Amino acid sequence: MGEAPVIEAVETLHNGWGRYLKLTIRQGGETFSREIEDHGSGVAVLPFDPDRRVALLVRQTRTGPLFLSDAEPALLEAPAGLLDHTGEAPEAAARREVLEEIGVRLRTLDPAGEAYSSPGCTTESIHLYLAPFGDEDRVAAGGGLAEEHEGIEVVERPLDSLLADALAGRLRDMKTLALTLLLHARRPELF
Asked: Of 70, 125, 159, 182, which has the highest C-beta tally within 10 A?
């Protein structure tokens, strides 16, 4: 592979809701630039009821598909979000997001790994979790926080139907696809 790349300079292009940077990189005697979004870490959780064999998901319009004039900009997704506070533990963020988005207070989180969402253009890594719940854990309506303007619809899906959508290429959110396939691999008896 040769000489390891070295970042020689970082220029901030924009620092608003997103932080966009231009990196100057040296490798093998050559210098080139790359732009990247410095997004931070996030969490995604697939809450599932093992007794009823259903998952709770959210449907919300996403700006990427909306910008691309996608016919279906509202995606079906596992509850997810960013670590909001400096030093917030991923587990705490996962519990907070699930409570805000679908109204479930989680007792158990099963870590499923951490992965970069799109390493060629963003620093975002997502902590993935599977989370069993029961009817007694539903403590609020969900729908997200009003001040975040998320427009979240809570959707209950049978696990076998969710898996069928995953295998047929109908799940269009990568984290939800990965979590659905992982739950099937770990708990096939639920499908």
From this structure: 159
